[in-house]
Amino acid sequence: MQTKLTKKQFVVVSLLIFFGLFSCFKLVQHYFYAKKPSYNLNGITLPHPIALTPFELIDHFGDPFNLDNLKGRWSFLFFGYSNCPDVCPISLGLLTNTFIALEDTPQILDNAQAIFISVDPKRDSHEYLKEYVQYFHKDFIGVTGSEDVLLSLVKQLQASYKISSAIDTDGNYLVEHTSAFFLIDPKGRFFALFQPQFHDADKIKDAFIAIYNRQANTR
């Protein structure tokens, strides 16, 4: 025989279920975020750097660009494409200002490089990439490659991109992509990231200098 709950009993049972689910959520949240990168105003630093696996791309000189090119220096990686109407030029402008700000610390600047990785190899030849990246800074490096290699590298950094199937009459299309600066350490490991929309050049410079000095002191 089924027994109907009174209104008061229903409220009590509902509250017990709610607080039980809430407690489970907080418990899961605690253990989930305990394994996640630490968040702060300057960006996200991974508690344990992630080693990247080998890859083969082409730089804007037409030369091979692989994991060895990321070793020995700190590298800022940014995924995008040259036909990007807003996010890419704004972000690369910010990265340019960051590198200009780092000129006050030449030793650190000499140990840093910026790499723009085009996820639109169909339109971004290495010749065109050279012109594009050096418009922002003479030392920036443009890189691209096959879709398989790009997807593999993007996944390693937990990023993403998607080429739109909507093409206009002039053959133009948009590409959705992660808009973050990925910081790779001199050992070729994914070390930290910065979201450009939440930072200015001085904040990124100060955060990077702090990371650089902290790592230098732990050697």
Short description:
The protein has 219 residues and is of the alpha+beta class. 39% of the residues lie in helices and 24% in strands.
Description:
The chain has 219 residues and is α+β, with helices and mostly antiparallel strands. It folds into two domains: 1-35; 42-217, Glutaredoxin, CATH 3.40.30. Helix content is 39%, strand content 24%. The strands form two sheets. The chain has a nine-stranded mixed beta sheet, with helices on both faces. It has a two-stranded antiparallel sheet with strand order 8-9. The termini are far apart.
General shape: globular
Widest sheet: strand ordering: 1-2-11-10-5-6-7-3-4
Largest pleated sheet: 9 strands, mixed
Total helices: the number is: 6
Task: Report the count of strand segments.
Answer: 11
| Gyration radius, rounded | 23 Å
CATH architecture of the largest domain: 3-Layer(aba) Sandwich
CATH superfamily of the largest domain: Glutaredoxin
Q: SSE order in H/E notation?
A: HEEEEEHHEHEHEEEEH
Number of domains: 2
What do we call the CATH topology of the largest domain?
Glutaredoxin
What level of helicity do the residues show?
25-40%
Q: What is the CA-CA span between the terminal residues? A: 73 Å
- The SS-based structural class is alpha+beta
Uncertain runs are 8-42
The average pLDDT score comes to 83
